[in-house]
Design goal:
Two copies of one chain form a homodimer. The first copy, chain A, has helices spanning about 55-65, 90-105, 125-135, 145-150, 200-215, 250-270, 290-305, 305-310, 320-325, 360-370, 395-400; strands at about 5, 15-20, 35-50, 70-80, 110-115, 160-165, 170-180, 190-195, 220, 230-235, 280-290, 340-345, 345-350, 355, 370-380, 385-390. By secondary structure, chain A is an alpha+beta fold. In chain A, strand 4, helix 2 (about 90-105) and strand 5 form a beta-alpha-beta unit. In chain A, helix 1 (about 55-65) packs across helix 2 (about 90-105), helix 5 packs across helix 6 (about 250-270) and helix 7 (about 290-305) crosses helix 9 (about 320-325). The longest helix of chain A has 23 residues, at about 250-270. At the A-B interface, helix 8, helix 9, strand 14 and helix 11 of A face helix 8, helix 9, strand 14 and helix 11 of B.
Amino acid sequence: MTIKKISGGVCAPKGFSAAGMHCGVRKNREKKDIAMIFCDVECSAAAVYTTNKVYGAPITVTRENLKNGRARAVICNSGNANTSNADGVEKARAMCKMTAEALGISKSDVIVASTGVIGLTLDLEPIEYGIKELSKSLSKEGGNDAAQAIMTTDTLVKEIAVEAVIGGKTVRIGAIAKGSGMIHPNMATMLSFITTDAAITPEMLHKALKSVVDKTYNMISVDGDTSTNDMVSVMASGLAENDLIDSEGDGFEAFKAALEEIGGYMAPMIAKDGEGATRLLICNVSGAPDLLCAKTVARGVIASSLVKAMFFGADANWGRLLCAMGYCGADFDLSKVSISMSSRAGSVQGVENGFCIPFSEEEAKKILLESEITIDISMDQGGADATAWGCDLTYDYVKINGDYRS
Amino acid sequence: MTIKKISGGVCAPKGFSAAGMHCGVRKNREKKDIAMIFCDVECSAAAVYTTNKVYGAPITVTRENLKNGRARAVICNSGNANTSNADGVEKARAMCKMTAEALGISKSDVIVASTGVIGLTLDLEPIEYGIKELSKSLSKEGGNDAAQAIMTTDTLVKEIAVEAVIGGKTVRIGAIAKGSGMIHPNMATMLSFITTDAAITPEMLHKALKSVVDKTYNMISVDGDTSTNDMVSVMASGLAENDLIDSEGDGFEAFKAALEEIGGYMAPMIAKDGEGATRLLICNVSGAPDLLCAKTVARGVIASSLVKAMFFGADANWGRLLCAMGYCGADFDLSKVSISMSSRAGSVQGVENGFCIPFSEEEAKKILLESEITIDISMDQGGADATAWGCDLTYDYVKINGDYRS
């Protein structure tokens, strides 16, 4: 199947429009802080959520609203997470009500999200103003504004769209995302809103989303902190008029492959844009005894503070890679493990049969100074593979998070 | 029971002498790199080890040697961890043989340890020279030299000794330790060698050690990285001539209390001296439903990168404390949780019934600018308590670990 990148972001699929603007949740008028996505027709909808026991009020409300597998709009503000506030749920519900009224839809058809500081009372006045304005300015060109409006400490706008042919019909999928800090696997530790015009039931949509998130969004780690607020949602308008995907089979597999293209694009984008990051780290584990082991090792290595700091210093400290593998909780035979690191500048092996071996420091330095580095861990004890994405630990991470609120 | 601090470190208990010097494992001649502790008589001995699957060769060999619960000497080098090397076990055994020959004891009576860079071949030549010299310079005044010789990136020498009366006899316990980086609970993620002149069986010694380590050494986190090499060992000479502690009871409890004094001193010392640290963080959890929950929450909060960074910035971001509690894996009722922070400068509450509440930013700033800060988490849902020790995440942590090997 050919999957082609197209423009338009979340507005690329048929039926969707979007908008983003500054409403005043943030003081800085230069920074958009509220986004809306709308669909002309009712959609199948699904979402996966943070596993943090302390989760934001918007998560509670979106969960309620998506129980029936239906949605038509997303409303999301940045600058305030509306989490750990006594009146949080009430306010998240009010955001849905305002959105529903402005768009003439049911309030249970709204996906609500917030991102920003935890424990700060949310002022609904700017939100109310924003929702009214957004509902009037929705357009097919608004996807990028929406992508900007959900950013917090992100430095890169994250949007993508693809198209694929499913059962003879062209289907489109679009997405925006925000990441940056508090990013550690376990759904979703960031926000991403996906749209598609595929015809698919809520059940199969959830199944496809869960599978793709597990392989992509959930395999990112910026700092080991699983956020309270984050989710990946998807709305499917059905306007592509493909045969309804209501069970597993070719159509479902094709849709999942296209959706995986979205996740596979967003995961490294989010990792690369981790707070203060200067390098994207990709950890490929192959030949693991099972998938759990492959994923645990890939995530464990990418999440180690000492590994992350060593990449900031471009220092080929193979022992730290082994150390992180050792404590990550995976069960494996160390004596079969080999490790190499590679980048545009070449490739170098430093571990064989579980032991460190001599290598060229000079060559390794050259390889590690690049901005995108791949760690290849060959386990040679089974058929399971996994990839995880992360970034280096830098002075700037400490700086950004030493005084995030001010 | 009165437990009194005394001088002398590991040499305070009857029967023990020690020495430390520069032998040449490290290039820098100013830095001592090999330590020896010796006992005039055979000791009951016990140790707890790292849980990292990738563990150092010295761990393998010490485990073998302590199987019979007996030891008379510790030999430890810094600068090279002798880990992930194909000839590591062979060399750790050679270190025991050299020590045994120099001291005229059995090689299975030696506790061997190494700390430093992983994956670097260990040169035995300086070690052999060092062992010979150390065996000639052992003295009752050598404890501080030994404490210096096991340091890596530590900035503070860590030694202590206490005495207590057990069954009418004065018993002494002494210890040295090193910490700094790769410090995260799960035995022991650092090295500490403890000596005592108590008369106690190897079994009861192990039991006391395990209990104390779980409450103290294992409740430290510097960076979430569990090291490959670390252990806490204890040797008991019996020269205090107390009634042999061979079962639970008053004598055992008194010994454990004195040993806990050692762990309770070393844990904050190690946390405070975490790589790059500027502040000691103490997290007290009270009223947890069970001990596992109390420990998981205390460790989870202290280990969060975002929490650690916020203390570097002296920023009272209560949401991050709640966030870390939420993803640490503990099961609890959020609605009963209150959180305060305190230091010499005062105390401030920021969370009540699981929600953030208004607080004085000015007061909080003053409190958080101190060098020792306590986070009090009151869970109000049971009788279990725990304390964990950590430190802030700073530019210097990144700097130290961005280029540790050079």
